Automatic annotation (TrEMBL):
SUPFAM superfamilies: Histone H3 K4-specific methyltransferase SET7/9 N-terminal domain, TolA/TonB C-terminal domain. Residues 199-289 form the TonB C-terminal domain. This is TonB C-terminal domain-containing protein. GO terms for biological process: transmembrane transport. PROSITE patterns: TONB_CTD. Pfam families: TonB_C. Coiled coil: none annotated.
Amino acid sequence: RLYQHGGVAQRVNFKNDLTHGLYETFWDKGEDKPKDIGFFNEGKKDGVWENYSCCKEGQSWLIGRTVYKNAKRNGLDEAFDADGDVVSKINYQNGLQSGLFELFHKNGKIKERKQRHNDRTVGLSQRFDEKGFLVSEAHFGEGSQEFILADYFSKEKKYTYSRCIEQTSNKWTNIDNCSELAIDRVEHIAAQQGLETNSQQQEYFAILKSVPDYPKEALRKTIEGHCVVEYEVSADGKTKNLLIDQCTDEIFADESLKTVSRFLYSPRIVDGLNLSVASVKHKLTFVLE
């Protein structure tokens, strides 16, 4: 397949009318500037695929490397910036994130490290600053609803609520009950520690996020959708000035605001002072199972 100016846009091989073998696409700057390179096995992506961006100093550069098996991601997925530095390393199994998940700072040091299983975080999740110092930890119980359940104010006091989630029978009420317990616990620790952390400067990050209830009216109408809530993270880590930025259906608005009002953050710190952060946005998705 060619561009209008005659340059090669795509080079594809076939076997028995199915895409098979080497597959290449190119930027319209020339055949020496690849866009996608990979292999098909009887119509399905298979093996290592590479993706390139264009153009820097007349050349395209690698931005992603993914391993496929039977058209699904299987193995290590890597992303790179324009300088060739690694941005992320994420492991997949049968198309789902499973295994070690790592994000990196520009200097190559680990930014975030956690374990994933079937697109959910399990066990210990850690974040680090650009110097390699631990900034935060969170603990997730395997199989529990995914939201952050940890205190970042004291390395001596670890507290998780996965047992609360797992032992409560009603999955819609347990989130509220356990979230209230979590907020009380974190507020207590914050008061004890005077909101002191190990760093004089840090960006805000979430301590606790909860999962919204599915509105009963939406359940009756079998409606799915999402809302984006905009809010301010105050200097004490709470959310305020909440408003709906957008919603696919107003039926989800009240529950979205209610859920975000329970979020709790470690506030932004500059020169030892807690600062508020405006125009923070969070998307809540409502999907019927």
